[in-house]
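hey
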């Protein structure tokens, strides 16, 4: 039973998430023999104020660009 957790910056649409779920489920079934009905995918949408890279909050980096 694959249990996939995806942490990413918030902002994706529900339709984008549907497509990701479809593709990840498909590849796990094809390449790992995982049953689609037993595959779980969790999205963790992280606010830009709660994620840092290179010593700076992403929210602050976005202000500079």
């Amino acid at each position: 039973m694959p249990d996939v957790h995806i942490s990413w910056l918030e902002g994706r649409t529900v339709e984008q998430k549907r497509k990701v779920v479809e593709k990840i489920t498909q590849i796990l079934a094809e390449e790992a023999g995982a049953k689609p009905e037993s595959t779980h995918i969790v999205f963790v949408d992280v606010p830009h104020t709660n994620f840092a890279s290179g010593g700076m909050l992403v929210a602050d980096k976005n202000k500079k660009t």
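Strands lie at 3-9, 40-46, 52-53, 56-57. Residues 14-32 form the longest helix (19 residues).
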